[in-house]
């Protein structure tokens, strides 16, 4: 009996789609429900940041980093300011470093709330866990608003420190939040991790082997889900991370469920870091004065941080002028996205969406 | 004789059934043809109701409209686009005449036969119980044979779609 | 009987019919009663759709730690009206390459079975619109028309997403029809009649609800009906996060409104079937003498509708192949075993003419059997999920494995 030949069925996921986490297009060739081929088409959100940055001063480029990964603005700011400080040789006062750590970890919690919520939303729960996690995210965004006036595009870090000191009403707010946060995370774990439907949708789906992850330069929860314990906060400590004691959550299998639980546990470790930082928070100035048009010596610098999505790095080249000669961002989502095709070939369309959700990409960061 | 409502219903349903059957043969698009076939199934179900066969009517809708039309739609979707045209063919006219002749013969025979009138009263009992008892008492062997046939058909279908192709004996 | 009940009791209506029947032909009364009854059912269906929109959004909002709509009217009660007006005034888009005749048909076609389901319900002891002798089978037959209408909707849109959604729906609908029919066979065998009014009478006379006698039937029916309704956890047909809106992607305006309303009306219909067949319909252990029975019935319908909303707000959705495996490998064996057990019990009860207290024994046996079988199948399916631990491993220091050099046999 001959095989039944059916023509390949090309379906376009996106760019307008409720679930592609931005304007992201995936051309999938289907055979029934199995994916035979997946081709990514990027660039729908390209705003030519890297070119625009070449005409602005170093301080004027900080708002660009807010809008790159718009769900984790603080860490974007932090990475860029570290690179610029490395390039220009600027020191940062201790209080500023502690504040940077606190806000970066708060941003990590907020970003993971969003990532986990939308992951479960992609699995099909009609935004119920997302709304629960948004409770905490709203409180964190309130803390941001108290400090720097903005919730999403914070523009808080400056070259040489942070922009503002925290107001008085910030301390009780963050202490309350950190007191209730571990209970909330336990609540999420209780609600979600034993649910058979989530297990059925995400266990053994999109398994990434450690070799493949290292070969693809994966980073962040994608890498830690495969079982490799690599965290830039421990491997190459920046700011004052070497003064804190925290653990690295590591998965077992490299599938979507492991990435999900790694993110949940990272939220808990961030709470512990914030508590330690609040205890050790010294007084003092919050930034070293830096000229408005900073002219670093000619040279190049690369600084990378552990953003919620992975290794976020900034590469700056200076030619002595007030604007950078080359401004490049190594965005973790872009590098992590390269494994999508290998992970989803052979699985069904619904699985591809779940894998995309678990990779936690942000298209603003991919396209810049 | 039946009362007027049943006669009117009969004629309306007959027109619907025969009209949609005619459209099945003549309409251009094959998916439209299947949908007209579904309409004729529903018409036949209505005719069963005029004959007081309630169980058969509902089962007609359940099986034919619910399952067999889906089967036909799947079969159509698995054919390539070029084979889905229902255009009239060159021998449509002779076939139409032949079908008309056969229909005329059937109608003539049907009108001329001395059908046995159903004896007994006009009491209506639900036919489901009668069909059930008939299947288990006089007609139990055809019933069992039909179930075996269905099981064999299901097994055959599963064998055919197994990866690796069917066609292996046993 | 309290005097206030007479107004609810539709007695004046019966007197009106008799008066008209005495003065004119009998058929006229028949047609008039049919029209009045149809109007009543349609108004219930229409109002029910509006109320359901509000209920669903408020209840799911509450489950999601937020208020639902609360701007339009007090407590957002006019929100469904606002939604209807919005949908009516929207531009009616029709894709250029869509099949013109077939595109406009499905919204109407899918509404018909939803309405027809309500005609066989028993709202009060003698308030049935159409007391069909094959009521249960009639319900199953017309619900199979819905899947056909959804397919026509997906096919005529000329849209790959829509076709994908339509195919998924058809596959799931015909897969879940079998456990649905088998599950409903057990109450029919037990009560000996297929008419819904007869089944409610059976429960009323014996003062026992079929939910206690046949719990597994109830479970299988609830799951299969949720799948047939395309509601979470089986709502792959309109899985918004995967195929945008599935088979009704291309429908805008009131056509989409009809699809949405029909989903809600079908949920009401399924709740009505559960209430009638398994929970006694309009009877509530004698309370129906004091409260109008149809109010009790509507209360039960909304009680189970709340259950459906609860499912929607809480659970994620399953993949299509997981759903089909669940239907074929788990529900059908359970339904078949359920029928065998029910038939044995009916045989013992009727042929040996045992007393009615033996039904309590049957109930206990059936509940135990359900627990055992559900537990067995559950372990069978979820065995692979618990293979790996479901919590992370915490590591304190960096450790990167040494991989073989690239180009060697083991490297990838």
Structure report:
The complex is a heterotrimer of chains A (368), B (170) and C (412). With 368 residues, chain A is α+β, with helices and mostly antiparallel strands. In chain A, 48% of the residues lie in helices and 14% in strands. Chain A has 15 helices and nine strands. The radius of gyration of chain A is 21 Å and the shape is globular. The model of chain A has no long low-confidence stretch (mean pLDDT 89). In chain B, 71% of the residues lie in helices and 0% in strands. Chain C is built from 16 helices and one strand. The N terminus of chain C is likely disordered. Chains B and C meet through helix 2 and helix 3 of B and helix 7 and helix 8 of C. Strand 6 of chain A pairs antiparallel with strand 1 of chain C.
Give a concise summary.
Chain A is α+β, with helices and mostly antiparallel strands and 368 residues long. Chain A is 48% helix and 14% strand.
Structural class by SSE content of chain C = mainly alpha
Number of E strands of chain C: 1
> What oligomeric arrangement do these chains adopt?
heterotrimer
Main beta sheet strand tally, sense and closure of chain B: none
Architecture blueprint of SSEs:
The complex is a heterotrimer of chains A (368), B (170) and C (412).
Chain A: E1 9-13, E2 25-31, E3 34-41, H1 49-52, H2 62-68, H3 73-88, H4 94-123, H5 128-148, E4 157-158, E5 161-162, H6 170-192, H7 196-202, H8 210-215, H9 221-225, H10 232-235, E6 248-250, H11 256-280, E7 299-307, E8 310-318, E9 326-330, H12 332-337, H13 340-344, H14 349-359, H15 363-367
Antiparallel strand pairs in A: 1-2, 2-3, 4-5, 7-8, 8-9
Helix pairs in contact in A: 2-3, 3-4, 4-5, 4-11, 4-14, 5-6, 6-11, 11-14
Chain B: H1 4-26, H2 30-50, H3 54-77, H4 92-112, H5 127-136, H6 140-161
Helix pairs in contact in B: 1-2, 2-3
Chain C: H1 5-8, H2 11-23, H3 26-63, H4 79-88, H5 100-103, H6 105-117, H7 135-156, H8 160-191, H9 196-206, H10 210-213, H11 215-228, H12 240-243, H13 253-278, H14 293-314, H15 320-351, H16 358-382, E1 393-395
Helix pairs in contact in C: 2-3, 3-13, 3-14, 4-13, 6-7, 6-13, 7-8, 8-11, 8-15, 11-13, 11-15, 13-14, 15-16
């Amino acid at each position: 009996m001959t095989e039944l030949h059916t023509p390949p069925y090309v379906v376009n996921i996106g760019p307008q789609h409720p679930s592609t986490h931005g304007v992201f297009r995936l051309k999938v060739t289907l055979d029934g429900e199995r994916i035979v081929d997946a081709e990514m088409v990027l660039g729908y959100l390209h705003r030519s940041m890297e070119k625009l940055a070449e005409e602005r001063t170093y301080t004027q480029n900080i708002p660009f980093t807010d809008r790159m990964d718009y769900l984790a603005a603080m860490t974007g700011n932090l990475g860029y300011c570290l690179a610029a400080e490395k390039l220009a040789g600027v020191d940062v006062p201790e209080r500023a470093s502690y504040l940077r750590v606190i806000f970066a970890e708060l941003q990590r919690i907020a970003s993971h709330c969003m990532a986990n919520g939308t992951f479960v939303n992609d699995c099909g729960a009609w935004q119920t866990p997302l709304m629960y996690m948004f409770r905490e995210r709203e409180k964190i965004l309130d803390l941001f608003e108290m400090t720097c006036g903005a919730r999403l595009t914070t523009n808080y870090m400056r070259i040489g420190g942070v922009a503002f000191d925290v107001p008085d009403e910030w301390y009780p707010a963050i202490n309350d939040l950190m007191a209730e946060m571990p209970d909330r995370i336990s609540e999420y774990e209780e609600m979600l991790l034993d649910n058979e439907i989530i297990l059925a949708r995400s266990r053994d789906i999109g398994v990434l082997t450690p070799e493949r992850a290292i070969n693809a330069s994966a980073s962040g929860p994608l890498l830690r889900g495969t079982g490799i314990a690599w965290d830039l906060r421990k491997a190459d400590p920046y700011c004052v991370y070497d003064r804190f004691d925290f653990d690295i959550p590591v998965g077992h299998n490299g599938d979507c469920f492991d990435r999900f639980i790694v993110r949940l546990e990272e939220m808990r470790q961030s709470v512990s870091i914030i508590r330690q930082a609040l205890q050790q928070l010294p007084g003092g100035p919050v930034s070293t004065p830096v000229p408005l048009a900073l002219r670093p010596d000619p040279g190049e610098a690369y600084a990378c941080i552990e953003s919620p999505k992975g290794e976020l790095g900034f590469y700056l080249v200076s030619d002595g002028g007030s604007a950078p000669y080359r401004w490049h961002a190594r965005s973790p989502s872009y590098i992590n996205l390269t494994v999508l095709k290998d992970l989803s070939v052979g699985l069904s369309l619904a699985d591809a969406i779940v894998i995309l959700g678990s990779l936690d990409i942000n298209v603003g960061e991919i396209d810049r | 004789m039946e009362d007027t409502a049943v006669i009117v219903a009969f004629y309306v349903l007959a027109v619907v059934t025969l009209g949609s059957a005619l459209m099945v043969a003549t309409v251009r698009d094959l998916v439209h043809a299947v949908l007209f076939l579904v309409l004729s199934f529903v018409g036949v179900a209505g005719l069963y109701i005029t004959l007081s066969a309630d169980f058969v009517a509902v089962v007609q809708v359940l099986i034919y409209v619910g399952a067999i039309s889906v089967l036909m739609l799947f079969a159509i979707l698995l054919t390539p686009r070029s084979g889905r045209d229902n255009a009239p063919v060159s021998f449509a006219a002779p076939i139409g005449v032949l079908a008309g002749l056969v229909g005329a013969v059937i109608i003539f025979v049907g009108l001329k036969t001395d059908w046995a009138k159903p004896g007994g009263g006009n009491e209506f009992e639900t036919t489901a119980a009668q069909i059930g008892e008939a299947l288990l008492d006089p007609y139990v062997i055809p019933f069992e044979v039909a179930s075996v046939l269905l099981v064999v058909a299901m097994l055959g279908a599963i064998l055919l779609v197994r990866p690796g192709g069917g066609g292996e004996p046993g | 009987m309290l005097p206030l009940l007479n107004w609810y009791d539709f007695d004046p209506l019966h007197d009106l019919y008799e008066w008209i029947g005495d003065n004119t032909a009998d058929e006229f009364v028949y047609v008039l009663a049919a029209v009045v009854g149809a109007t009543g059912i349609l108004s219930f269906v229409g109002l029910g759709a509006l109320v359901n929109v509000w209920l669903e959004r408020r209840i799911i909002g509450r489950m999601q730690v937020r208020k639902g709509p609360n701007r339009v009217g007090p407590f957002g009660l006019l929100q469904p009206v606002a939604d209807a007006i919005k949908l009516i005034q929207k531009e009616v888009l029709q894709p250029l390459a869509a099949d013109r005749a077939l595109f406009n048909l499905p919204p109407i076609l899918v509404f018909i079975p939803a309405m027809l389901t309500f005609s066989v319900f028993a709202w009060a002891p003698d308030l049935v619109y159409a007391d069909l002798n094959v009521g249960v089978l009639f319900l199953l037959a017309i619900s199979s028309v819905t899947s056909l209408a959804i397919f026509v909707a997906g096919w005529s849109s000329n849209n790959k997403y829509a076709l994908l959604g339509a195919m998924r729906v058809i596959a799931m609908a015909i897969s879940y029809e079998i456990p649905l029919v088998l599950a409903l066979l057990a109450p029919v065998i037990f009560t000996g009649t297929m008419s819904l009014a007869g089944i409610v009478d059976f429960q009323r006379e014996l003062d026992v609800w079929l939910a206690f006698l046949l719990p597994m039937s109830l479970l299988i029916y609830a799951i299969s009906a949720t799948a047939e309704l395309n509601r979470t956890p089986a709502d792959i047909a309109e899985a918004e996060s995967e195929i945008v809106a599935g088979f009704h992607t291309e429908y805008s305006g009131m056509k989409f409104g009809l699809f949405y309303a029909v989903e809600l009306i079908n949920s009401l219909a399924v709740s009505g079937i559960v209430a009638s067949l398994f929970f006694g319909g309009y009877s509530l252990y004698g309370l129906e003498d004091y409260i109008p029975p149809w109010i009790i019935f509507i209360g039960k319908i909304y009680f189970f509708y709340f259950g459906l909303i609860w499912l929607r707000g809480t659970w994620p959705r399953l993949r299509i192949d997981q759903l089909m495996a669940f239907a074929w490998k788990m529900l059908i064996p359970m339904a078949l075993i359920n029928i065998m057990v029910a038939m044995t019990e009916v045989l013992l009860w009727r042929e040996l003419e045992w007393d009615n207290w033996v039904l309590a024994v049957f109930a206990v046996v059936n509940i135990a059997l359900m627990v055992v079988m559900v537990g067995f199948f559950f372990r069978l399916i979820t065995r692979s999920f618990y293979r790996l631990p479901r919590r992370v491993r915490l590591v304190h220091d960096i450790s990167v494995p040494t991989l073989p050099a690239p180009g060697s046999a083991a490297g990838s």
